[in-house]
């Protein structure tokens, strides 16, 4: 991996944080974005972190069985859509949007996002200190307003390095 100055890496990272999705990226986005989205940027290279498996699991309110969704980051390091790993008590596959709609409007939901980063770094001959990143967060206030405007959205960005990571509430 070519070495670059901290200033160059910071400039690249900043451009990715501020960039709007490209036209090609927009074509693969679903018609409606899911209530939860993620984005991973590699702070070592300053580039999007692609092909990282991510799962999100609903921790509370509890329901029958585990409620888990999975995805893999795309070339832009983003999760534009989730696949249900679990089903409801009747064997129906869950859709994240529909799941949010089954809860009382404005209900708090506690989630955990797990980013499996070990292979990502192993492919770059780096042994990370953190093989997995786990982020717990709360979604609150889902539901349309009186005009039927867009419902709640929670973006979980991950700035990832082999020896550190940070996150924040994105937009």
From TrEMBL:
Signal peptide: none annotated. Catalyzes the hydrolysis of 5-hydroxyisourate (HIU) to 2-oxo-4-hydroxy-4-carboxy-5-ureidoimidazoline (OHCU). InterPro entries: Hydroxyisourate_hydrolase, Thyroxine_BS, Transthyretin/HIU_hydrolase_d, Transthyretin/HIU_hydrolase_sf. Belongs to the transthyretin family. 5-hydroxyisourate hydrolase subfamily. Coiled coil: none annotated. GO terms for molecular function: hydroxyisourate hydrolase activity. Residues 36-170 form the Transthyretin/hydroxyisourate hydrolase domain. Homotetramer. It is an enzyme of class 3 (hydrolase). NCBIfam families: hdxy_isourate. Its EC number is 3.5.2.17. This is hydroxyisourate hydrolase. It comes from Verruconis gallopava. PROSITE patterns: TRANSTHYRETIN_1. It comes from the Eukaryota. GO terms for biological process: purine nucleobase metabolic process. Keywords: Hydrolase, Purine metabolism. PANTHER family: 5-HYDROXYISOURATE HYDROLASE (PTHR10395:SF7), URICASE AND TRANSTHYRETIN-RELATED (PTHR10395). It catalyses: 5-hydroxyisourate + H2O = 5-hydroxy-2-oxo-4-ureido-2,5-dihydro-1H-imidazole-5-carboxylate + H(+).
């Amino acid at each position: 991996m070519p070495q670059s100055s901290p200033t160059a890496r910071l400039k690249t990272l900043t451009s990715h944080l501020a960039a709007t999705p490209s036209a090609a990226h927009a074509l693969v986005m679903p018609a409606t974005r899911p209530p939860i989205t993620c984005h991973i940027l590699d702070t070592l290279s300053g580039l999007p972190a692609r092909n990282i498996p991510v799962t999100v699991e609903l921790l509370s309110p509890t329901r029958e069985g585990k409620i888990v969704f999975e995805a893999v980051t795309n070339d832009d390091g983003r999760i534009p859509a989730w696949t249900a790993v679990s089903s409801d008590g009747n064997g129906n596959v869950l859709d994240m949007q529909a799941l949010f709609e089954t809860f009382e409007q404005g209900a708090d939901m506690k989630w955990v996002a797990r980013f499996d980063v070990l292979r990502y770094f192993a492919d770059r001959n780096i042994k990370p200190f953190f093989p997995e990143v786990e982020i717990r967060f709360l979604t609150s206030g889902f539901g349309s307003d009186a005009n039927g405007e867009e419902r709640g959205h929670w973006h979980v960005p991950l700035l990832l390095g082999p020896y550190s990571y940070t996150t924040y509430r994105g937009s």
